[in-house]
Design brief:
By secondary structure, the protein is an alpha/beta fold. It is built from nine helices and seven strands, in the order βαβαβαβαβαβααβαα. It has helices spanning 13-24, 36-44, 61-73, 99-125, 148-167, 199-205, 213-225, 234-246, 248-261; strands spanning 4-8, 28-33, 51-55, 81-84, 131-135, 174-180, 230-233. The N and C termini lie far apart (54 Å). InterPro entries: KR_dom, NAD(P)-bd_dom_sf, SDR_fam. Pfam families: adh_short. Keywords: Oxidoreductase.
Length: 267
């Protein structure tokens, strides 16, 4: 039986690029998303018969059990890699952020990752050499202004990853977190609360670079097969990782630059 990867957020962006990358290496790909049309577009890019698609709201713990059971019926019970990737972007002053948005980002970006790990454990344990890879962020290395809710979820994913990598070692399961900088995906088109600018426009105004999704897909492979628990991706993420350790004061200055890029009265 060919190896199998299950990808949340498989309807676009990082999830789609990762599906293409692993399919090209002969893996059977499980796509999960709330966006059926997006998953159909991803599936059309994969080899015929080499994937399955599943509607999944990662906030629903019971859906996780049902969907993974459906997927593993097609893989003889194996999951070699569970990629906890689904997430949403958000930004803006906390004082102006609706409580519904705070709840939504925590439920999807953090609780959804916990639920995926919990539901996937028995399949990963039963598959020799398996891995759980979680999408964290450079925001999980250092929290910039106007990103408190988002950064909190990504720090949480980082902490969960570190804990589970030790907890699950006895079962032969690697647990890893990729930590990309700004990735050129539709998530960046979301407007920042309290600003007329999208996150994409703010990043450009601050003079920061975007990392192609193809580089992130390659990093997922490296994370699952390598020995590093955390994998910063892109020049920005690697710089943040370095500065967070050795020069946090410079990061504070950079954060103020990003806040100013949002426009007058919104910092």
């Amino acid at each position: 039986m060919m190896k199998a990867i299950f990808i949340t957020g498989g309807g676009s962006g990082i999830g789609r690029a990762t599906a293409e990358y692993f399919a090209a290496k002969g893996w059977f790909v499980g796509l999960a998303d709330v966006n059926a049309a997006g998953m159909a577009e991803t599936a059309a890019l994969l080899p015929a018969g080499g994937s399955s698609s599943h509607i999944l709201d990662v906030r629903d713990r019971e859906q996780w059990d049902r969907v993974l059971a459906e997927f593993t019926e097609k893989t003889d019970g194996r999951i070699d890699l569970l990629f906890n990737n689904a997430g949403i972007g958000a930004g803006g002053p906390l004082s102006e952020t609706p409580t519904e948005e705070i709840d939504r980002i925590i439920d999807i970006n953090l609780k959804g990752v916990f639920y995926g790990a919990q539901a996937g454990f028995k399949y990963l344990k039963a598959t020799a050499g398996s891995a759980l890879v979680n999408t964290s962020s450079a925001a999980g290395l250092y929290a910039s202004p106007r990103m408190s809710s988002y950064a909190a979820t990504k720090f949480g994913v980082r902490a969960m990853t570190q804990s589970l990598d030790q907890e699950w070692a006895e079962h032969g399961i690697k647990v890893r977190a990729i930590m990309p900088g700004f990735i050129d995906t539709p998530l960046l088109d979301v407007s920042s609360t309290g600003s007329n600018l999208s996150i994409r426009e703010m990043v450009r105004a601050a003079g920061l670079e975007f990392t192609p999704v193809e580089k992130v897909a390659e990093a997922v492979w490296k994370a699952a097969h390598g020995n590093h628990t955390f994998l910063p991706i892109g020049k920005t993420a690697r710089k943040i990782a370095f500065l967070a350790r050795w020069a946090p004061g410079l990061l504070m200055q950079r954060g103020r630059t990003l806040a100013k890029a949002a426009g007058p009265g919104t910092a």
